[in-house]
Specification:
Helix content is 74%, strand content 0%. The chain has one domain. It is elongated. It contains 9 helices and no strands. With 186 residues, the protein is mainly α. Helix 5 packs across helix 6, helix 6 packs antiparallel against helix 8 and helix 8 packs antiparallel against helix 9.
């Protein structure tokens, strides 16, 4: 798959997705070349921004135990990847849509890329800037879920794809909200 087709995948079900379905990458390759390196960005950026910016982003940010929180955050990302692949498959089946585990996990690997990349926004010590970057990344991830489900499940009904997307996004946001509450409690 051409990396330049990735932005097109955010806005279209017919750009990049068919190429991805054709090459059918092994999940282990997807994990080691996409999930693992990109999921290291948020914990690393949280830790580094706490060291270099301290409390300039949010009061109390620098005094948190980021040397403990960062690895826990990474572990949570790995657990979420595994859970989301399974969840995508289950939700699709509940809607009588056939998707195999391979495609579900490829989708679970691709959709959080904008969120992982948004952590680079922590290079700018501004809460407002990081909120805007995060909201844009969330929107891009939601679009990737929709277009990925539509393309990889070979769907012809937009309403069903939207329904599956809504359920996946709801479950994903709920799990991350719980994770953030737990992490902020540390």
């Amino acid at each position: 798959m051409n990396i330049l087709s990735f932005p097109k995948m955010v806005i279209s079900s017919s750009e990049g997705w068919p190429e991805l379905a054709k090459i059918h990458p092994a999940i282990i390759r997807v994990f080691f070349f996409l999930v693992l390196p990109f999921s290291l960005l948020p914990p690393a950026m949280l830790y580094l921004s706490s060291i270099y910016y301290g409390d300039s982003i949010i009061a109390g940010f620098g005094s948190r135990p980021w040397e403990l929180i960062s690895p826990l955050f990474f572990i949570a990302e790995m657990v979420t990847f595994v859970a989301m692949g399974w969840l995508i498959k289950q939700i699709a089946e509940d809607h009588q849509v056939d998707v195999d585990y391979h495609d579900a996990y490829v989708l679970a690997a691709i959709t959080p890329v904008p969120l992982w990349l948004s952590s680079l926004g922590l290079l700018v010590p501004s809460l407002a800037f990081n909120m805007v970057v995060s909201i844009l990344a969330l929107g891009a991830s939601c679009a990737l879920i929709y277009h990925g489900i539509y393309a990889l499940c070979h769907m012809h009904e937009e309403v069903t794809a939207a329904s599956i997307t809504q359920a996946v996004i709801g479950a994903g946001l709920s799990s991350w909200a719980i994770l953030l509450v737990v992490i902020m409690a540390i």
